[in-house]
Design goal:
The complex is a heterodimer of chains A (275) and B (320). With 275 residues, chain A is an all-alpha fold. Chain A has helices at residues 5-27, 44-49, 52-85, 88-103, 106-117, 122-127, 137-161, 165-173, 178-206, 210-214, 223-233, 239-262. Helices cover 75% and strands 0% of the residues of chain B. The chains are: A mainly alpha (275), B mainly alpha (320). Chains A and B meet through helix 1, helix 3, helix 4, helix 5 and helix 7 of A and helix 1, helix 2, helix 4, helix 5 and helix 6 of B.
């Protein structure tokens, strides 16, 4: 029966892993007009990543992602706790309400935020104010939070569910309650969920560019937007440079996953990656 | 049971209060704060969507003043051939992707089950990396692969690259991972002794699959099919990059993006976006409905299997 794995392995090798390899190879080519085929190799593209321009882009991206992660965490943890308290149909409804945005087209949802926030948009009219939100980092953070919040709630909820009630019972018997109970027992036990949530929010958000285009008005560049520019938008596309940026992003994301997962004890993996 | 977040164990979802309440219901401030927090969070997620749908019924041609209800924008979409082609193409791509993803997914999930942990883990990683890697990186890689590898080779043979096929392949890489996760989760719940029994009685591999395994996993496969359709309909990055340089029309999200990028803001766009939202909600609720019903039925079946004889007789008294 193991032979049944071959179609998937062959397909992914050709359609997914080979293109990734191509990115790495191309990132080592010298200039924008490099012809395919073997020739000279250079690390110049990687040197260019550390250009102040791209460093600024990286810092902006990281700042936005940090805000998004913090806000998602602050909103999601209490939501997960509330969800755990709910029973029966209430719980099903709550979960469904979280799943719908999760699977609704992000483009349509960013567009929805756009008409809400745009100058003379719905919000501006309701408040009767002349506010400029499109093109600010605030709008982008709001957009990303609205898109990625469920990714944070689910893993935290699952690790809350896995806490043995007897543990809490025991803690309470020894006089541990309220804040202390949360700080000493609940929070450490749900750290796997929190870490997984951070992986699922921060890393995909790093690869976003629609939000930068729609809500950032194209004025606040994120890494993914810089990549798109080098491939599709720039008057002189520089594929090797774009490839180097891609490789950097990929390495950062995989390192992020590995690093965050390393903070967990083995067996504490509530999600996905161990299946 | 592995808690994978895309396919949560349904017992978590519907569990009744049969256990000790982990946190005693405290009266006072805490529940109010929890609900207030949830209200804010759901507000951030839902208000934009509601406003969008509401304004797709707004009579006003430009601007955002409310001028009364109308269905004009939806009727007008019917005359927009570019849009209709985009919808047709999106649905076609989603359907083919879902079909291929479920076929490959069932095969891969069966294979993974028969592997030892030493092989199953790396195989699981191999299949799941496409979800973890940033989509834009995959999209860029495939764009270059098509431009530098596939297109030149196809030209040699006098063929032209079809971006529809390219997008299907692209979607399939990501969707396959979701299909495999969902089907593997259900396979874990399946009773292997039934298959062993079939084999002992001389059934071939194909007979065992068709008569024993398939009936058990069919609902989950249907759910995976619909979920993959949702994901494919939603995808933007892969479609955008793989459309470039190809022939044919854009998919629906790519079309919406191109309109927005050209700042061609019309009320029709609200209608288009509303339809996209509606399509996602429909396929998703169908998928979840099928999945959870199947899981619930499975649990009922199992609880009967494991009930000691005496209790079964109590509920179904036999004639003396």
């Amino acid at each position: 029966m193991r032979r049944l794995a071959w179609p998937a392995v062959v397909f992914l090798s050709v359609a997914f892993y080979l293109p990734l390899l191509l990115i790495v190879v191309l990132s080592l080519r010298p200039g924008p007009f490099a012809e395919p085929g073997l020739g000279s190799w250079s690390l110049a593209n990687y040197a260019e990543i550390f250009d102040p321009l791209y460093l600024a882009v990286t810092m902006t991206s990281l700042r936005i992602i940090a805000w998004v992660t913090i806000i998602c965490l602050a909103l999601a943890y209490p939501m997960a706790q509330l969800l755990r308290r709910l029973q029966g149909p209430g719980r099903v409804l709550f979960l469904a309400a979280l799943l719908i945005p999760f699977f609704t087209n992000c483009l349509a949802r960013y567009y929805a935020l756009y008409i809400l926030l745009k100058p003379e948009g719905v919000l501006a009219q309701i408040l009767g104010l002349d506010i400029q939100l499109i093109g600010t980092e605030t709008a982008m953070v709001v957009g990303l939070v609205s898109n990625y919040l469920p990714f944070m709630v689910f893993p935290i909820f699952f690790s809350l569910e896995r806490i043995d009630p007897r543990t809490l019972e025991a803690a309470r018997m020894f006089g541990c309650g309220g804040w202390q109970l949360f700080r000493r027992i609940v929070l450490p036990l749900t750290m796997p969920g929190v870490v997984t949530g951070v992986i699922l929010v921060a890393l995909p958000a790093l690869g976003e560019f629609i939000v930068a285009r729609m809500l950032g008005g194209g004025m606040i560049p994120m890494i993914a937007m810089a990549i798109e520019r080098e491939f599709l938008e720039a008057p002189v596309p520089n594929w090797p440079l774009g490839s180097a940026l891609c490789t950097g992003l990929l390495v950062a994301v995989l390192a992020g996953v590995a690093g965050l997962r390393a903070t967990l004890r083995s067996g504490d993996d509530p999600l996905l990656l161990n299946s | 049971m592995t808690h994978s977040f895309s396919t949560p164990d349904s017992s978590v979802i519907t569990r009744q209060t049969s256990r000790v309440e982990a946190t005693p219901r405290r009266r006072g401030l805490a529940p109010i704060l929890l609900w207030a927090n949830a209200t804010v969070a759901f507000g951030i997620m839902y208000i934009p969507i509601l406003v969008l749908v509401l304004y797709s019924f707004n009579r006003a041609r430009s601007g955002f003043r409310w001028e009364g209800w109308t269905l004009d924008w939806y009727w007008r979409l019917m005359e927009n051939t570019t849009l209709l082609h985009a919808v047709e193409r999106s649905l076609f791509i989603a359907f083919v992707t879902a079909l291929l993803a479920t076929i490959l997914g069932v095969a891969a999930a069966l294979a993974a089950r028969s592997m030892g942990p030493k092989l199953a883990r790396p195989f699981g990683f191999f299949v799941l990396i496409p979800i973890v890697a940033p989509e834009i990186v995959a999209a860029v890689g495939m764009l270059m692969f098509v431009a530098q590898g596939v297109q030149p080779i196809m030209k040699q043979f006098g063929l032209t690259y079809s971006s529809t096929a390219g997008i299907i392949v692209g979607h399939l890489t990501v969707c396959l991972a979701y299909a495999v996760v969902m089907i593997r989760t259900v396979l874990l719940h399946c009773d292997r002794s039934l298959e062993d029994a079939a084999k002992t009685l001389g059934a071939t591999f194909w007979q065992t699959f068709r008569l024993v395994t398939w009936p058990q996993i069919a609902p989950a496969v249907a759910a995976a099919f619909l979920l993959v359709m949702t994901l494919s309909l939603d995808d933007f990055y892969l479609s955008q990059f793989l459309t470039v340089g190809g022939s044919g029309y854009a998919t629906l999200p790519v079309y919406l993006y191109s309109l927005q990028a050209r700042a061609a803001l019309t009320p029709e766009m609200n209608a288009i976006a509303s339809i996209i939202v509606l399509m996602s909600i429909l396929t998703l609720s169908l998928s979840l409905g099928i999945y959870y019903r199947a899981m619930a039925r499975e649990r009922v079946r199992r609880s009967h299997d494991f009930t000691p004889q005496g209790t079964v007789h109590e509920s179904t008294p036999q004639q003396p």
